[in-house]
Each structure stands twice: as C-alpha cells, then as structure tokens.
C-alpha cells in the first residue's frame, strides 16, 4: 500500500489536471465579453435583454450587458454583421431578414443569424388617454398623431399597415416608448400603438399618473388583421394593467433570442442551458419570461437554430428537424 499511494495520488492529480485543462480548452475560443441588442428604454426588450445579459455574464464569469438599439430589425443586422453577439428579435422581421427583405438592407440575405431560445409573444396593443374619448379603433379620428415606437421596429413595421387596413388615417410618429408615453401624457400624441411584451413599463408608469384607455380589437377587426398579417390571436389578461377591467383582444408575434451562427458551439450550449434551466430566475427579470421555456421552440419556423442550442434541446428530449439547424 505504501508503494502504491504515491502512484495513486499521481494518477488522481494528473487526472484532475487533465480535466482542468480540458475545461479550460472548452472555453478557449469563447468571447471574453458580449453585448445584447435590445430596443429603446422603457420597452420590454430593454428590461428583458439587459437583465438576461447580466444573468449570463454573472453565471459564466464574462463581461456582458444590454445595449439600446432600434429594436428587432436592427438587432438582426447587428448580429448578422458580428457587431453584437446576441440580440432579441421578432418572427416577422426575422422572416424578412433571412429572405433578403430587411428594410435596413434590401437584398441582403442575413444568414449569420441563429435562434437560441423562445422569449414571449409580443402583443400589439393600443393606448390613449381616457380624456381623449378614444375607446375603440373606430374612435381614432382622421389625422390622429400616433406613436409607433422606434423607426424600423416591429411595431413601426407592422402596426401602421394594420391600422391602415382597418381604415385609420393618421400622422406617423416615432420614438422610444418612454418618450412616446410622455408625449401622450402631454397631449402631443393622440394614440400610442405598442408592440412590446406586457406589461409595457411605459404604460404601467403612465396609468399611475393619469387615466388611460387600453383599446382592444373588435372581433371583426381581429379577423381582418389575422387574415392579412403574420400574427396570432392574443388575449391581454385583465390583471396586466390596473386600467383593464376585463381581458382584451389583441394580436401578437413571437420573439426569440438570437446569436451569431459563427459563435462557438460550446458557448451557445452553455448559454442556452443556463437560460432554459433557470426559468424562476428569468421570471424575476421580467414576468413575460414565463413563456421562455423549451416547449415554445416550436414557434420558430423561420431561423435555423444554433448547433449549440440545438444540442441542448435534443439532449433534453425536444426534437428539431435537421433542416432547422444551422
């Protein structure tokens, strides 16, 4: 035994050193820092993306954070070009980007953008001051000043077209959600048409300070929009805002977190694992993360999944077809 102990110790120490070296090698090509493209301050993308970035950075021992951007359309371009490692986007703009129809880069097929995980549905909702007398879409007067969020955002891309389809004539205004909420309160806007996860921070803040109407779609308006645009039926629960007395009809698009396809597989595997296995922590960042669960990967029919993300899903019993993996 005395003659074997040193050899045993040597084997154990050697094995530990090899394991340590292997772990180090696995991270050798990881980025030392990362940035997440979000959207304007006051919107859910900013709160969700910044909180998620801090969570990932803390847990993986990296430097990372969220950055204000123009939203989903710009995030696709920033990730595709390698200017940002991660971004948050919506399926409508994602479909345009991979088909070379992005308004920011017409004709450019953005093929360096991969899906990581589902976030939540983005409801399209409308708010006006109660003092305006606007209680329905048909109440919106001709020439109304409507804020649609940042230029080229999901809201700005789809909401004006939806309202035009429903016969609304308006003056189009752009800006960050917080700014638009302030302009609505100050009487500089008549309506704000939001496309953002609920509760929208700007609306929650606004209804503390004044009376607000959350305007829902009628059944006919809902049917018209569902037939004409890549959206799904959605219900805004009455519990979302103190203003709502009952659930409100709306439409929505799904959001996904995206990554540059050329990022290391092991890195994206660990980021996906961390996110998908800690939903309690994600919900503490923003309650919309309740739907940031692996079962909802089925709502991505547009972007290929990053191989690192796909590996985690497949290891945990979630099927992804080969043609949906980069």
UniProtKB/TrEMBL annotation:
Residues 1-25 form the signal peptide. Gene3D superfamilies: Periplasmic binding protein-like II. It holds the Pfam family NMT1_3. Keywords: Signal. CDD domains: PBP2_TAXI_TRAP_like_2 (cd13570). Coiled coil: none annotated. The keyword Signal applies. PANTHER family: SLL1037 PROTEIN. This is TRAP transporter TAXI family solute receptor. It comes from Vreelandella songnenensis.
């Amino acid at each position: 035994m005395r003659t074997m102990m040193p050899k045993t110790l040597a084997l154990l120490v050697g094995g530990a050193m090899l394991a340590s070296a292997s772990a180090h090698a696995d991270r050798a090509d990881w980025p030392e820092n990362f940035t997440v493209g979000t959207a304007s301050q006051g919107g859910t993308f900013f709160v969700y993306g910044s909180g998620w970035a801090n969570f990932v950075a803390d847990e993986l021992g990296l430097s990372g954070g969220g950055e204000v951007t123009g939203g989903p359309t710009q995030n696709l371009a920033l990730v595709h070009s390698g200017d940002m490692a991660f971004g948050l986007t919506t399926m409508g703009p994602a479909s345009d980007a991979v088909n070379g129809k992005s308004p920011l880069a017409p004709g450019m097929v953005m093929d360096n953008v991969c899906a990581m995980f589902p976030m939540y549905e983005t409801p399209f909702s409308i708010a006006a001051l109660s003092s305006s007398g606007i209680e329905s879409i048909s109440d919106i007067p001709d020439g109304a000043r409507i804020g649609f969020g940042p230029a080229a955002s999901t809201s700005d891309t789809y909401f004006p077209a939806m309202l035009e389809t429903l016969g609304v004539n308006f003056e189009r205004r752009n800006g960050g959600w917080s700014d638009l909420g302030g302009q609505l309160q100050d009487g500089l806007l008549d309506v704000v048409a939001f496309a953002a996860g609920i509760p929208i921070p700007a609306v929650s803040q606004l209804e503390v300070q004044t009376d607000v109407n959350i305007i829902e779609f009628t059944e006919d308006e809902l049917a018209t929009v569902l037939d004409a645009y890549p959206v799904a039926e959605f219900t805004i629960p009455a519990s979302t805002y103190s203003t709502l007395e009952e659930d409100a009809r709306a439409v929505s698009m799904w959001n996904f977190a995206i990554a540059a396809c050329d990022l290391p597989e092991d890195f994206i595997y660990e980021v996906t694992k961390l996110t998908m296995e800690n939903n309690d922590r994600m919900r503490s960042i923003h309650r919309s993360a309740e739907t940031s669960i692996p079962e909802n990967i089925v709502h991505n029919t547009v972007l290929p999944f990053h191989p690192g993300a796909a590996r985690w899903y497949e290891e945990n019993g979630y099927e992804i077809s080969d043609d949906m993996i980069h």
